[in-house]
Amino acid sequence: MIGSVLAVFCFEWKRSFTWPRMMWWLVLMCFPIFIMGLVRYNALNAISASDRSQEVFLTGWLALCAWLLFALIPMLVAMLGTLLWTTPAISAELERKSWIYLAVRPHGSLSVVIGKYLTAVTWVFPPAILGLTIAVLLAGLSTWTEVGRVWWTMLRLVLLSVPAYGAIYLLIGVLLPRRAMTFAVAYTLIFELVISFVPAVINKLTVQYRLRSLLVEWCELSLIGPNGRPLSTSLTVIGTEPAWQHVLILMAMSIGLVGLSVVVLKSREFSSSAESET
Amino acid sequence: MIELKNVTKLYGKVIGVNDFTLTLEAGAYGLLGPNGAGKSTLLNLITGQLQPTLGSVRVLGRSPRNHAELFRHLGYCPGGEGMYSEVSGYDWVCYLQRLQGMSAKQARIAATSSLELVGMSSAMNRPISSYSRGMRQRTKLAQAIAHNPDFLILDEPFNGLDPIGRHELTTVLLDWIGLGKSLLFASHLLHEIESITQSFLLICGGRLLASGTAEEVHTMMVGLPNEVAIRTESPYELASRLMREHVAESVTVKGEIVTISTRNPAVLYEKLPAWLQDWGLAVSEMRSADESLQALFNSLMKMHRGEL
């Protein structure tokens, strides 16, 4: 079975070397670099050279860069990349009517799901990591220690967010192959961008909540509100759980959701005669 | 080899297969039925892609649903196309053989030899998007036979093939059967199946209407009205003469085509050449109006309902 997964992985990687896909790859890599460069250029132009060396500015700039990079890479690039490649993993095969050729192979459906998932995840890593590396260097952080800390934090967040989002979108694609993209976008907007900021227990179900909490902890960002109270206490949008717990939950979520996708797929019927799922 | 017990498959309120009971031993069989008869549903049940709503399906003694071991012995050529247009036929067949559990080297060898067998060796490195319909059919067949399965299921494999292509693939399939392997060949055209096997399963409306050899099916049809269409320049004269000979139940004339309904087509076929010579009438085309098999199936359905 490992050989079959590897075969799907290699085949899908080979298929991904097309101009449209490579263009997407470049866009995903360049977008955070472009935005970071733009923010730095505008911010540094607006602030005098003497102000730039003050402690308040340096701390604030570090926080701004960390949040911006977080929004651009572990959020945007990871979400968009995995949304584009894992959501249609099954629906594309059904639409093309190629599913049947794969499903009548020993462990065919399982190999295809896992192989495609791994392809998507490894496809998103390079633009995210390359984009991150260049964007961090462009950010103009005051010391190499800060550069290293932000880069290392973001790298770990990327390594956690891409598999987690990939697994969520994969499951959506398997559960709702006919409108997979629509539901995946709806999930992202409703859960990851709205509910993750709702100060209630439900936000703990989102990937965003975990990533945000890890960012604050790993980057040692202080969140003091206007009233002098820590924001994490007044708004439960950032978890106070230890980092290992968030990491463990994200890893378990990724593995669990891929496993659930396999189970769902094995129990479903995709009839080629009906030319749609039944 | 295949055992279906009272199998019913419903798609919502639509019946795909209706109370189907069948036992097939190893061998070559033709699954014959008009479009929409339930052939593909039946094949999907046999390959485990669908689960019966009622009843049970057993292939090689086990349920085919998610049955990895069965898929090692099964080759399936579906009716639809569904190939990756941007990859080459060779890469596609190779990929599917890797999924079959072969090593990269074994897959390459299997893909090359199966594509060669179906006459695709010269075009196998071209992208599938550049293939004609017949070439795609051949490539589909290659992916089904490359892993040398014991049991091959083909759904309308001759669609889009030219006569030469049909002849070549018929030879391939006859050689396949000659090796003692099993085959289930679905088609809506009688002559396609007759060229491969003499064992038929006739289905219509999701039901098994009849099974047996071609001879048995023909025997079953004795006494049932058959339609014969004849093209002539003197259709009214031919129609009146045939009526006078009492071989036709009814005669319909439409343009140059005379359609004769007869309960005894053998007599008509035997005597018609002599009659045409005597009457001095020229016929440019004669075919069984039952060629599409729809009439045959209508008759069998009526028999099934007790109307005949």
Detailed description of the structure:
Chain A is built from twelve helices and two strands. In chain A, 75% of the residues lie in helices and 1% in strands. Chain A has 278 residues and is mainly alpha-helical. Chain A has one domain. Chain A has a two-stranded antiparallel ribbon with strand order 1-2. Chain B is an alpha/beta fold and 308 residues long. Chain B folds into two domains: 218 residues, 3-Layer(aba) Sandwich (Rossmann fold); 83 residues, 2-Layer Sandwich (Alpha-Beta Plaits). Helix content of chain B is 38%, strand content 27%. In chain B, the strands form three sheets. A six-stranded mixed sheet of chain B has the order 5-6-7-3-8-9, sandwiched between helices. Chain B has a four-stranded antiparallel sheet with strand order 11-12-10-13, with helices on one face. Chain B has a three-stranded antiparallel sheet with strand order 2-1-4, with helices on one face. In chain B, strand 1 and strand 2 form a beta hairpin. The model of chain B has no long low-confidence stretch (mean pLDDT 85). Chains A and B meet through helix 1, helix 6, helix 7 and strand 1 of A and helix 1, helix 2 and helix 3 of B.
List the helices and strands and how they pair.
The complex is a heterodimer of chains A (278) and B (308).
Chain A: H1 2-15, H2 19-46, H3 49-52, H4 55-86, H5 88-96, H6 99-103, H7 108-138, H8 144-175, H9 180-192, H10 207-218, H11 231-234, H12 243-267, E1 270-271, E2 276-277
Chain B: E1 2-11, E2 14-24, E3 28-32, H1 39-46, E4 54-59, H2 68-73, E5 74-77, H3 89-99, H4 104-117, H5 133-145, E6 151-155, H6 163-178, E7 182-187, H7 190-194, E8 199-204, E9 207-213, H8 214-221, E10 226-232, H9 235-244, E11 250-254, E12 257-262, H10 265-279, E13 283-288, H11 294-305
Parallel strand pairs in B: 3-7, 3-8, 5-6, 6-7
Antiparallel strand pairs in B: 1-2, 1-4, 8-9, 10-12, 10-13, 11-12
Helix pairs in contact in B: 3-4, 3-5, 4-5
